[in-house]
Structure formats: structure tokens, C-alpha cells
TrEMBL record:
Keywords: DNA-binding, Transcription, Transcription regulation. The gene is rpiR. This is HTH-type transcriptional regulator RpiR. PROSITE patterns: HTH_RPIR (PS51071), SIS (PS51464). Pfam families: HTH_6, SIS. It comes from Pseudoprimorskyibacter insulae. GO terms for molecular function: carbohydrate derivative binding; DNA binding; DNA-binding transcription factor activity. Residues 127-267 form the SIS domain. GO terms for biological process: carbohydrate derivative metabolic process. Residues 7-83 form the HTH rpiR-type domain. InterPro entries: Homeodomain-like_sf (IPR009057), HTH_RpiR (IPR000281), RpiR-like (IPR047640), RpiR-like_SIS (IPR035472), SIS_dom (IPR001347), SIS_dom_sf (IPR046348), WH-like_DNA-bd_sf (IPR036388). PANTHER family: GLUCOKINASE (PTHR30514), HTH-TYPE TRANSCRIPTIONAL REGULATOR HEXR-RELATED (PTHR30514:SF1). It comes from the Bacteria. The lineage of its organism: Bacteria, Pseudomonadati, Pseudomonadota, Alphaproteobacteria, Rhodobacterales. SUPFAM superfamilies: Homeodomain-like, SIS domain.
Length: 286
């Protein structure tokens, strides 16, 4: 891994977690959770804290993209000094309401900061081009991801770009079977490993449709299948969960993508926005 912006270190590690075995993932999680690692922390200490061999720690470091343990240690030290790392604090049972609010907001801020740090502008521009030119826009997602898909459809309809949301397995596969090369699927999946969504995405690709993936893991199966990957990242929280804060980052990515797509034909977007706003404005009158 090329060490640059310290805020990217933890994000790059999290994105590679799907490549690890359960034991390797535990070791990576143990090390990420530590805040006491410094330049003098020996490999032996890290291995003993995770109850594994020194060779295992080195193996994990390399699978996470580092040249070895020393580079891994250096990256973590730099990350722990960053502003983003300081934002996250785990919620405890005796937190006051004020502390809870601060911790939840700061954790979301961390997800935004780190997602922005790994932002892929070239992929973002390709995604906006695909959505702008698409004949049909289908949005796929299950559970919490389906809510993001619905938000996407709502946003694009406001500017006259029609799309459909599919959050049912059979409907998703039916959608994918009818897609053509002029069409685009935007798939939302935190893990990037939801089997039925992957089946639908692979069918869509087989039929020539472009696929845009919103996911937390760049090495996930969904990311490897997609034409364009827009990655979020979030630190795991025992109570909030990783998905909750990653969703905040994905919604911000979606907002930016919506604006960029609208900018491809701003005159048409503005004209359609006036129409759609006018159509619903009377419902707000009393």
C-alpha cells in the first residue's frame, strides 16, 4: 500500500476485509481496535495480543496491502494521529443523552471524512455518464439498502430521469432478464455479498447492462462484478453497527452523483424540476 493521506489507511484496510479468512479478519479487527501501537511496538506483542503467530500477523499485513508488519504499523500510527480517527468513540452503557448524540454524530462524520478520502473521481464521472445516457435505470437493494434505492429513484424522477426500484428477489431477476446494453443497474449492498442481488447483477451484466455498485468493500463480489464501484467506509460500532454509518456516506455519495448527473443536461434537469415541484406543490397547501 502506498502511504499518503493517513485518513485512507483504515478505509483501505476495511475495504480489503472480505479477502481475509475469519481468523485473519479477527486479527485485523484486533489490531485496528488498538490505540496503543507506537514505533516501539514489537511484532511479538501484536501477535500475542491476538493469540496468533508472528507469521500470521505478517500475512495479514500483506493481504491488507502493506509490504509487511513495519509498514502496517507505520500506517496505523499515522492514522491514529489523524482527525478522522479521533472522531469515533464507542457508545457505553452509562453515556448521557448528550454524549450519545455527540458520539453518533461524530461517528457519522468519521464515515464521511474517510469516504471522501478514498473517493474515486474517475469512477464517479463514469457513473454519472452512464446514468445520464441510460434508457432504463433500475435500482437494486434489500433491507436498509432498499431505502437508499428508493431515495435514488425519487431524486432522479424529480429531474425527469425515470427509474425503477427492485427489492424483491423474483422481481429483481425479472428486471435483470429484460435489461439491454443501453440500460444501467445501480446496486446498493453494504457487504457486496448478498447472493440474490449478485445473481441479478450478473444476469444484468450478461445482457449487456452497465452496473454501478455502492458498497463498503472494494474487493467484494459485487465490486468485482460491477463496471463502476463507489465505496463508502465506516468503523464498526457494537450498537450502531457498521451498516448504519456507512449508509450516511452512501447517501452523500448518491446526492453528489445525482447533482453530477443533472449537470450533464442542466437545462432539462431544471425544466423537469419545475414541473415535478409544481405537480406536488398544491399538496402542501392548506
Amino acid at each position: 500500500m502506498m502511504l499518503g493521506d493517513p485518513e485512507t489507511v483504515a478505509a483501505q484496510i476495511r475495504m480489503r476485509l472480505p479477502k481475509l479468512t475469519p481468523l485473519e479478519g479477527k486479527v485485523a479487527g484486533d489490531i485496528l481496535a488498538r490505540k496503543d501501537i507506537n514505533d516501539d511496538t514489537p511484532l511479538k506483542d501484536v501477535a500475542e495480543k491476538s493469540s496468533v503467530s508472528e507469521a500470521m500477523v505478517v500475512k495479514v499485513a500483506k493481504k491488507l496491502g502493506f509490504a509487511g508488519f513495519r509498514e502496517f504499523r507505520k500506517g496505523l500510527i499515522e492514522y491514529y494521529k489523524s482527525d478522522a480517527a479521533a472522531l469515533h468513540t464507542e457508545i457505553s452503557n452509562d453515556d448521557t443523552s448528550s454524549e450519545i448524540v455527540q458520539k453518533v454524530f461524530r461517528t457519522s462524520m468519521q464515515a464521511l471524512e474517510e469516504t471522501f478520502a478514498i473517493f474515486d473521481l474517475a469512477a464517479f464521472d463514469r457513473a454519472a455518464d452512464y446514468l445520464h445516457r441510460a434508457k432504463q435505470r433500475d435500482f437494486y437493494g434489500f433491507g436498509g439498502s432498499a431505502q437508499i434505492a428508493r431515495d435514488a429513484r425519487h431524486k432522479f424522477l424529480r429531474i425527469g430521469l425515470r427509474g425503477s426500484v427492485f427489492d424483491d428477489a423474483h422481481m429483481m431477476l425479472m428486471s435483470a432478464s429484460l435489461l439491454e446494453p443501453e440500460d444501467v443497474v445501480t446496486a446498493f449492498s453494504h457487504s457486496g455479498e448478498t447472493s440474490i442481488l449478485l445473481e441479478a447483477v450478473q444476469l444484468a451484466r450478461k445482457n449487456g447492462a452497465r452496473v454501478i455498485a455502492f458498497t463498503n468493500y472494494h474487493d467484494s463480489t459485487l465490486a468485482q462484478t460491477a463496471d463502476v464501484v463507489l465505496c463508502s467506509t465506516a468503523e464498526n460500532s457494537a450498537l450502531l453497527g457498521e451498516n448504519a454509518t456507512a449508509r450516511i456516506a452512501q447517501l452523500n455519495l448518491l446526492d453528489a452523483l445525482f447533482v453530477a448527473t443533472a449537470q450533464r443536461d442542466r437545462a432539462a434537469a431544471d425544466a423537469n424540476l419545475i414541473k415535478t415541484m409544481s405537480a406536488v406543490s398544491k399538496k402542501r397547501e392548506r
